[in-house]
Amino acid sequence: MKTVASTDAYTIVQRKDDRYAVIGADKKPINADEKVAILLEHGLITAPAPKAPEPEPEAETETQAADDAGEAEVSENDAEEGEAS
Predict the structure, then answer these.
(1) In a domain, 8, yes or no
(2) pTM as predicted
């Protein structure tokens, strides 16, 4: 592993697979949000862009559901007429 940056609190090393490890002064790995904050501070990673919120479906689904129910009733009536013939 190659040492990229070192401070009194932690050491950043680059692994063979080009990812980074952050090792604390107590020789234990630093993970999760704290690791991300350290790597962002040193410019070694970039934060992903936040996703745009998806627009909520409008009243179209209610209208569509009502139309589907009406078609089901027509289909049932057609089936009854076909059996009577």
Answers:
(1) yes
(2) 0.56
